[in-house]
Amino acid sequence: MPHKGHVYVIDDDPAMRDSLEFLLDSADYAVTLYESALTFLDSMPNLPFGCIVSDVRMPGMDGMDLLKQLKSERARLPVVMMTGHGDVPLAVEAMKLGAIDFIEKPFDDDRLISMIDAALQQASEGARNEAIALDIAARIQTLSPRERQVMDGLVAGLSNKVIAREFDISPRTIEVYRANVMTKMQAGSLSELVRLAMRGGALKD
């Protein structure tokens, strides 16, 4: 049966690692255990997308340092941070550094699983949206300079005649450029072109 996603557990306590492995494996996750943040970072370049579940207090590189490192490397993996009782200020700081959520030990098993589910869904939606935006930006790059000018005019609400007058070319020629823009941008209507231009970062302020 296919698993629900990858989870990377980072904790220096062997008993906690074993407990989390049993829990998450039972919840249909593919679990990989790490005894330190450094061993995880060493293997991270070769890992598939997944959720990191890390303890905040560990010898050597702790959870906060891990978050800083992930941020500096622009890693896309969501992080759920485990904290000891009374570490709420530290947990808040962790979320400022990019952790999606935190959970206090001892925690409810179902609550942790819900957090991981939400983290993976939120992160995958973000990655999908980013991929779409990059695809649209790539389409914009295929436009010739004149086609880009025509698209800018269209999304600004200008008519073919106004655009033609602005660039001193015939309205018929603008129609040709407009058709090329719609084809290259894969837009079926002007409203769709506006939405694509917005998502691709082409709308001028």
The name of the CATH architecture of the largest domain is 3-Layer(aba) Sandwich
Task: Tell me the CATH superfamily of the largest domain.
Answer: Response regulator
What oligomeric state best describes the polypeptide chains here? single chain
Order of helical and strand elements:
EHEHEHEHEHHHHH
**How helix-rich are the residues, as a percent range?**
55-70%
Mean pLDDT: 88
Helix and strand content put the structural class at alpha/beta
CATH fold node name of the largest domain: Rossmann fold
Shape: elongated
User: What ranges have pLDDT less than 50 throughout 5 or more consecutive residues?
Assistant: none
Please compute the radius of gyration using only Cα atoms. Answer: 24 Å
The number of helical segments is 9
Protein name: LuxR family two component transcriptional regulator
Keywords: DNA-binding, Phosphoprotein, Transcription, Transcription regulation, Two-component regulatory system
Domain HTH luxR-type: 136-201
GO molecular function, one term: DNA binding
Topology overview:
Blueprint: E1 6-10, H1 14-26, E2 30-34, H2 37-43, E3 50-55, H3 63-72, E4 79-83, H4 88-96, E5 101-104, H5 109-141, H6 145-155, H7 160-167, H8 171-185, H9 190-199
Parallel strand pairs: 1-2, 1-3, 3-4, 4-5
Helix pairs in contact: 6-8, 7-8
